[in-house]
Amino acid sequence: MVQRLLEPGEIEALDHTSIPRLLLPDARSLFTTRAARLRQLAGNQIKGIPVGETLSGYLNLMAALVDAQAAVLRTLPPDTFALPDAADIQLAIDHHMPPLPVSGQRPAVWRRVFDAILDQLDSLAASQPQLAVVLAELRALDASELEGCADAVLSELTEGVHPLHAPFVAAALQVMWTARASQLNGRSVQPLVTNTLCPVCGAHPVASAIRIGGQSQGYRYLHCSCCASEWHMVRVKCSCCENTSKVAYQSIEPEEGAPDPANKANDPSKVARAETCDDCHTYRKIFNQEHDLHVEPLADDLASLALDLLVGEAGYSRASGNPLLWFNAE
C-alpha cells in the first residue's frame, strides 16, 4: 500500500488529539541531558555538526553552566518554583494567552535561582580567572540592574545588556520557567493567536526538531528558548512568518562526502539544517532526530555556528537568538 503525503493544510485539519500539540519539558532530566550533549558537541563527536577548537571551549563552559542549572533545580526547595494561582492560569488559557508569560511582572524569587547558579560555578571559577571576573561582575549588579538585564534577555534585546552577563541571567530564567512549565496540565494549554510563539510562556523558539517515537513520530516541533516546551508546527512552513511558498533548506556537507544512498537513516547532512524563507528572509535551524537520536535543539543550535555563517553570508537573518550566546550591538 502506498501512503499519500498530506499537504500542510490537510495536516492542520487533522484531529489534534492524534498529534500531541504540546510537549512539556521534563525538568528533572532536561538540563542533565543538555549538558551531556554540549560536551559531546564540544568534543566534535556529532557528525553533521562540526565544531572547531575555539567554539569547543565555549561549549564546555556552557555545559558547566547547564550542570549548575541542573544542580540548582535539585537543591532549591520546590516552593521556589510554585505556579501562579490556578484562577490566573485558567484566565490566560481561556483567552488563548500564555499561562506563564515572560512579559510583565515576574516572580522576584528568580533572583534566588540566579544567586544559586553563581554559587554552583564558584569551584570552576577558582581555576578560570576570566569566569571569576564575570561572576564578580554579576554579583555586583544591584536589583534594578539585574532586573533590567532580565528584561533585555526575555525581550531578546542586545542594547543595554552585557554579552558576557546575559547567558548567566538567561540560565536562571530558564530554570525558573522550565520548572514551572513542567507542572502544567499540557492538555489544557491552548494555542496562541500566532503559532510562532510558545503557547506556555510566549517566548520565541530557539530552533525546531523533527521528533521520533509514539504519536510524535515524524512531526516537527518548535523548541522554546525559555521554558523548553515544544509545540507542533507542520513541516515546510516558515516558523517566523508562517508562509510556505518560499521555504528551502541549507546544510553543511560532511567532510567524508555524500552518505550512502542505500542507508537513508543517520545521514549527517540532515542532522542540522537551516530552514530559510525568501518571504521574510529569515532562517531558523531544524534538527532531525530521525538522523541523530540524541538531538537537543538548544545545544545543537549553539554548536552549529558554522551553519549560521553559511546562511548569513547568503543574506538571511536569524529569526531569534540562542539564550546562551549573545553579541553586542556591533
From TrEMBL:
The gene is fdhE. Necessary for formate dehydrogenase activity. Belongs to the FdhE family. Residues 197-235 form the FdhE central domain. It comes from the Bacteria. Residues 19-192 form the FdhE N-terminal domain. One of its GO terms (molecular function) is ferric iron binding. GO terms for cellular component: cytosol. This is Protein FdhE homolog. Keywords: Cytoplasm. InterPro entries: FdhE-like_sf, FdhE_C, FdhE_central, FdhE_N, Formate_DH_accessory. It is found in: Cytoplasm. It holds the Pfam family FdhE_C. One of its GO terms (biological process) is protein maturation. Its main location: cytoplasm. Residues 236-325 form the FdhE C-terminal domain. The keyword Cytoplasm applies.
